[in-house]
Amino acid sequence: MKQEFQIVAIVLITTFSVLSCKNQKKEQESNPMVEVEPSVQFEGNNPVIRHIRTADPSAHIWNDGKVWMYTSRDMEDATFYDSMDGYRAFSSTDMVNWTDHGEVLHSRDIPWGTSGWMWAPTAIYKNDKYYLLYPHSVKGSKDDMRCGVAVSDVPEGPFKDIGWIEGVDGQWLDPCVFEDDDGKVYLYWGVRAPKVARLKDNLLELAEAPRTIEYGNKNFFEASYMHKRNGKYYFSYNAGLGGFYGMADNPYGPFEYKGAINPKQRQDHHSILNYKGQDYFFYHWQNWNQGSKFRRNTAIEYLYYNEDGTIQEIVATEEGVKKVE
């Protein structure tokens, strides 16, 4: 009897210890902010996020003057993109030191989708709220993606799913949302055949029928991105073997093909912004700490324009960018 009592006691103590560890881990994972310091193992600042795998950076400057970056999340044991899950938010005031605000949206929070399959997000501030637009699989296939919409009152989230945009579905979408100077909002998406359509102010409905983008070169694969500079519209994308772009006088195109931005980084998925007078190129790479195409890391480079408005080619570096004072 005494021996049986000892066995029961051991089982109870073990169970309590396991639950305690799980709860402690859960509390650590829910920590809203983690300061991410540059690694002393590198002479430079790339990749900028090293404690977890991140990809597809969508960079923005909101009203608080900080640089905000929303990323997808690669898992360490990933063998395909189906395990991508849990979008994260990062912020910085100097482009080198980043605060990890934690997970802002997970597949468990999306009632119409499956687990995993949280691919490249895009973001916008509209209607006094922050929105994430993101591709997500309904049943667990790259062919049944929808463009979901989630909203938050603050840039660090969490974001709450409010549905999807009808008429934007199919293969992996890689959406990019772009607001023009007149307040009109456009959505770019698609694989192999890029599309664009203006969105209604609620960001949940198309305001017009989608148009196929003409861009002067037939090497488009995925990862549409739009930015504007000096009245010119820049449509950039991944060709499967790096990033390329074209220019136009309006958000629909046709875009005149201009060549490469980042041709040596396979699967380039980028965003571009100007911060304190300097232009920056946000992207991900695959060659840090035994990374693969399923385990990627966010990096940043300087971006430079020529006098005619064309973009100088980016070269991926470990040096990255310097701290902004």
Structural write-up:
- It holds the Pfam family Glyco_hydro_43.
- The record marks 174 as: Important for catalytic activity, responsible for pKa modulation of the active site Glu and correct orientation of both the proton donor and substrate.
- InterPro entries: Glyco_hydro_43, Glyco_hydro_beta-prop_sf, Glycosyl_Hydrlase_43_Enz.
- The chain has 325 residues and is mostly beta strands.
- It has a single domain, classed as Glycosyl hydrolase domain, family 43 (Tachylectin-2, Chain A, 5 Propeller).
- It is 9% helix and 40% strand.
- The strands form five sheets. Strands 1-5-4-3-2 form a five-stranded antiparallel beta sheet, with no helix packed on it.
- A hairpin with a 5-residue loop joins strand 2 (53-61) and strand 3.
- The radius of gyration is 21 Å and the shape is globular.
- Mean pLDDT is 87; it is low at 1-31.
